[in-house]
């Protein structure tokens, strides 16, 4: 049975206890050649801590006797580099530094973490040190300098590993997006974080530190430190390191096959499980080379497969709670100037956002000052893992997009909170949506859309409203990843439907749930030659009788007739497939129609 290392980033424990380890040691020679001070960025829960743990065990002078056990059957075990087991390892994990309190409290939190790490280092390497460093409770930077001197005087070399270098600084920034002073106090002038990295830089230049490897999520903190630490080589966008963290399709497929075998299930289920994993957890690309494989989030995959292994069925909740805090990143971006308009752009599948290059030299000031230029926000969303490089477009531009349905769900939730800030409205919307999943009667939701959801749009929104606006509104109300695989602009024999809701394979035993295809149309008030007030006064029957509405409905129904056979054939349950044409009349009214039943099938 596969032992999935869910939530475990201790390389030594994984190897000794024979847990699953996806071999990334073949990259060690490339890492060594890349530079002596490296910065590697990836989204949260992508395996960065395990990478650092692997490097620590590989280079640690004290694990030389365990080399065969830890690395013998891995790629690097066959051809180790001369530097293996040559260093004393000092590790800091800034995710352990609390961001609570004022600057003085945060400084004490940081000093406490650094001093505790140094104390552990001294205990671990006591036999290797001929000099004893001084520990300063109120000045961990001095403690660190003393340690560097002691290691050098003892004839050894120091390898510094820093995990989540930007974690607590980002927490400080995002705790109150309207007040960034505490964040700037950490980094500007003689800010404590900048001072610490200045000492790292100086110690490396003096030969007291031989190598530094830093992981984090975004380059914002490094940019705000400016000269504090401007010597690191960034390797996070290099194609050769695209697969350094994460899982590939090639690596995931045999894991799925083995789990299904352990559950005694037919291997025909493999395609269904792999498709679910692909839809919800895949889609990350960390370089501009589109031939490099897309990466899966390993934490979510292990969450899914471990549950499947235990219960022989997928988890009901597709989003592991470990990633729920990523919604906070989106909330932070939405609170910035122009933030909600950026989210609107991101949700536009017909016209994906593009950048000539990702911005990687920018600080918090850029995010606040540039209101008409979305490059910085889009780049930051890429680093957060809520956008990814989907393709290369015109003139070599990077085509950015939402990587998968888990992340799309986070955007949808943000839009829903914006449109329905009152909990009672949100709860009512969920109740209406649940009834719709079972009845296919859209009218209660259409009434709710008219009375509640459209109310958040102001008159100025009419100038950019279109079918996408309406589709996004319904996607926001209907999105449910517990029961459905939901996609917009789904390819159906080279045509594209506006929105498809297909019951997850593991939920198809709920007989009352239905599959849906939507086609949306939008009619402007100017084209209708009516005011919003005049539309609100008309009955549904009067609206349906309007020639423009009739034409829009017929156009949508014609498209649905073309889509229906494809999905009916794929899922083999045409009686559960409902095809709905939806026409929005400005941001005032909604008219809909179901494609009539035919030959004992829906649609």
UniProtKB/TrEMBL annotation:
Name of protein: AAA family ATPase
Coiled coil feature spans: none
InterPro entries: AAA-ATPase-like_dom, PDDEXK_9
PANTHER family in the record: AAA-ATPASE-LIKE DOMAIN-CONTAINING PROTEIN, CONSERVED PROTEIN, WITH A WEAK D-GALACTARATE DEHYDRATASE/ALTRONATE HYDROLASE DOMAIN
Ranges where the AAA-ATPase-like domain occurs: 5-225
The organism of origin for this protein: Thiothrix fructosivorans
Classification of source organism: Bacteria, Pseudomonadati, Pseudomonadota, Gammaproteobacteria, Thiotrichales
